[in-house]
Amino acid sequence: MFRYRVSKFSDLSENIIPFFKQHRIIGIKALDFADFCTVFELMRDKKHLSHEGIEQIRIIKSGTNTGRDKSI
Q: Distance between CA 62 and CA 39 in Å, rounded?
């Protein structure tokens, strides 16, 4: 087992996201990772600071993990 603690936003862009893009996640979790990357980009672009941005993030979140339609 390996643990990595994210303490800065840049840790995501410099370490976590590139690692999982290089070592592809398979199955339905790959879709969750794609959603995670989308939310990361929204936050990086400061869109989470607007009402519209928060709503976008809520919609994305509602489809992740157990909320995702597994038939897709």
A: 12
